[in-house]
Amino acid sequence: MSERQIQLEVLRYNPETDSEPRYQTYSVPCMNEWVVLDALNYVKDNLDPTLSYRWSCHMAVCGSCGMMINGEPKLACKAFIHEYTDQVRVEPMANFPIERDLVTSVEDFIAKLACVKPYLIPKSDQPVSAGAFQQSPAELKKFKQYTLCINCMLCYAACPQYGLVPEFLGPAAISMAHRYNQDSRDGGRDQRQEVIASDEGVWECSFVGACSEVCPKHVDPAGALQQVKVASTLDWYKEHLMPWMKK
Amino acid sequence: MNKPYVRPLSKTSWFLTQPRYKRYMLREVTCLFIFAYTFLLIWGLKRLSEGPDAFQGFLNALHSPWSVLFNLAVLIAAVYHSTTWFNVTPQAMPIQRGEEFVPGNIIIGAHYAVWAVVSLIILIIGIRGM
Can you tell me the ipTM of this complex? Predict the structure, then answer.
């Protein structure tokens, strides 16, 4: 097992003492098979117990350890040391306010996710005795990739539109709305449409595509948003040019 | 203590921070060339409406080096604009056949094929009209 000395440059911010963030460099002896999260844990355990960051599963499932690594939104548990030079810069996720060190405020995202009603809204009430809602493999495949979202918010850190217009609902929330809209068991599209087809919704997206490029679970939020645009445009045409088509 | 720090983001130079943002801006800027070209076409229509002599003057002006350079720049921009959009069509318009999705390169390829056929038709019409 080879070891390498890495200069880990971390953006730090202490709300009690700092007026703005500052960089602090730690010299970390890293094993080649380590990820950046291991290096941060080494700092926390051996060099500086005051360093704050979020993490949990260490296996790209919980979505907690999102941060900017050399300017790129990454999960620290999925960013392998051997892919970097001896100098690695770690910053909190871009476009989010910094709470402390690498910890960002996530309230805005949580509120946006909640407002798109990311849950099944059945077309009609059905008694339990009627049994399960049936779904074919093809119907499942239609939306399955979107279910892989782990709410890590890297897509928001990558999205310049979210940085410039913080009101934008953003990639993950709209993708999650699209996921339920595409579900054959769901009947809640009209309710979600009011939010996602608004000015702060999908029309704020200009298809930079960065969200899909950085997604650690290959969800393709950019694709979902373009599909929502197409569907919303068809809605408009149906409403204005073919009013008799209205439900 | 809760005192979140919001990092400033430049409204005018944010796209310089990432190569992928620069590529995005390059794609967006190509529309200005296409915008400019529509003015050239409208100008041509205006000259056409003013009679044969005026239109001949317009056609002669198209042969100037500046015009050739402008047309070449628009062509490059239009090709870049079109190809970048063609390449993202599978994301915007996925087609599901049975359980599986049609591979993206077939959707992209279909766009190129239609582009080639339409270009060929326009070329034939252009040559016949000459």
Answer: 0.87
